[in-house]
């Protein structure tokens, strides 16, 4: 970065300024990051959107907050980076190294992934504890929440869409990587749920945003209580499978928890009834996604016509319309946590990371989330050798029964809607796996084959207690405690 650019950076906004000496190292580093969405497409341009020195270059370590625009063929995204700067990198931080700056205010210094440095991660927490503004950055917090000072930070390991830091096992900070204008649903929905007293989702206690000229604020990070000792639903399901153990009681409880969250979301935020035309548009969107995915994942091509049947049936079936509301949007077992007392919580309300924010914030049928969990039981059963279809079927049934117990309506009573959403999810998964985990592609492909076959006439379930003949806006159950 030039001296002039560096001077402006302290004031905050540097829209369009080139990244200077940082550019070559970031070009090489970005595509290697799990959270980088533009893999496989050459970066055509890197732009500085905003730069703030959380700690100036004179400080050691320095901490630089960057928003950078990354243009690649057919996409233009904005990413959040927290870069540490030190003259000498201690050996423990070697894995975090991005490169050495050759010129500019950081000439000769090591530039590295700031969240990998406990001192810098602690500084970020301090900023969140003391709300205020720094350049375009705004730090906010719930004034009633207790956020301890200086708990030891550690990065969350594993494959994530964003980067999370755990502080002393009491709080977890998610730093969003691909960011855009408008509130992130992962802040919006948990806050809305907390406001209506839903305890199934950890309530945000602090967050930070960027306010850039001519743009809605961009949500950059959210701090929430860390549910210590909880089991990730996906890992728990795999352990049960490996032990040949039943999971239906857990699946039933998860169905109830999911239904409670849906009911609270319908209370907290607008819920609407989609008219037949809107439903047909929903089906058309699914058909378009299928066509686009089949172009990208050729293995889908032989099944495309059969899969389309699910979406055509949805478009043709809706005389009365479909209830739509804010939902989780990317629900699967990895987004669920089970506490030692057996209660379930849902996390990560960002929605499908690849979808535009406006789509993710639109009301949708709650069955989209239900389909996500049902697909997840299939994923678990298929990652077990030998494949355990009965285990998945039992879990799917138990989950739907639990859901019906809370809402009075079993999702299987609407097989056309459920099949359309399961198909859409399997198509999404085929694209996700082909992009990120090709070894897993066979899992959604097995579902694709099944869902593309002509369906037998649906087995009618006995009506659930209080069940309605047609989809209704979500009934509102009495609030229940988390247990
Ligand atoms: N409040 C929490 N308490 C305990 N663990 C959590 C909490 N929030 C997230 N996690 C853990 O962090 C992982 C990643 O969180 P998630 O919100 O899914 O991030 P990403 O959007 O990066 O995928 C989860 O799978 C879970 O194991
Ligand atoms: O957790 P994310 O929000 O990043 O979600 C993405 O990655 C998930 C995988 O980590 C992916 O989920 C798929 O694989 C899971 C097993 O690893 C399985 O339980 C899910 O049912 C399946 O969809 C998710 O689709 C993707 O958006």
UniProtKB/TrEMBL annotation:
It is an enzyme of class 2 (transferase). Residues 451-483 are annotated as: Disordered. Its EC number is 2.7.1.175. SUPFAM superfamilies: Protein kinase-like (PK-like) (SSF56112). Pathway: Glycan biosynthesis; glycogen biosynthesis. InterPro entries: Kinase-like_dom_sf, Mak_N_cap. Residues 29-117 form the Maltokinase N-terminal cap domain. Keywords: ATP-binding, Carbohydrate metabolism, Glycogen biosynthesis, Glycogen metabolism, Kinase, Nucleotide-binding, Transferase. It comes from the Bacteria. It catalyses: D-maltose + ATP = alpha-maltose 1-phosphate + ADP + H(+). Monomer. Belongs to the aminoglycoside phosphotransferase family. This is Maltokinase. It comes from Streptomyces cirratus. The lineage of its organism: Bacteria, Bacillati, Actinomycetota, Actinomycetes, Kitasatosporales.
